[in-house]
User: What shape does this take?
Amino acid sequence: MDDTQLLRYSRHILLNELGIEGQECLLASHALVIGAGGLGSPVALYLGSAGVGRITVVDHDVVDPTNLQRQIAHTLERVGQPKATSVRSAIAAINPDPQVNTVIQRADAALLDALVPTADVVLDCTDNFHTRHAINRACVRHGKPLVSGAAIRMDGQLSVFDTRTPGKPCYACVFPENSGVEETRCATMGVFAPLVGIVGTMQAAEALKILSGLGSRLAGQLLMIDGRDMAFNAVSLPQNPQCSVCGHPQG
Assistant: This one.
């Protein structure tokens, strides 16, 4: 680190849990952020401000006026721009250090198989189960930790899925693809604006701990957030040995 970086990241360096070594790990790391909306905005801003060296942002959509209620990386001036490009501008305005790569397309299996192996951590900031399962399969296949967040109405959830540790579940263990879960999106159901900030900021925190070597204690845990009462509850998540993604189905 040069003198400018030592000053910029001094509040991290002062932390016993991070120090110079942890900050250098962040500067040398690559985070893959999939989704640049309500969750992806605080995720990208905090990863960028914290000095993660490379950040790849994947999003196919453009900034719309209805996004600005909660997607804090975007501005009125950038309405109509690709969200990934807008996020890159927002990070650059805070910290010029990170190399921010943008991918303006949907995160399909082929794209994920190209990007996931290059990342040190993957952050799922999407809002549909099809993409979430595709991300999960790629992370399991390539042995990468996945930080997953979700928010709808007044409820949020957060978990880390890291199948590099034996016995830890993947996303499909908890939310099987054939479970018949009804898809709900904030476009039709609404979402409390600060809630996506809470969940996204916590996703960034878990990713930074993973990248700096601290690790995450949320692996194998599902943290549920009730935005009405500001209540947090965690439940343990066992691996499903019959999981079609990370388990070993019999028969």
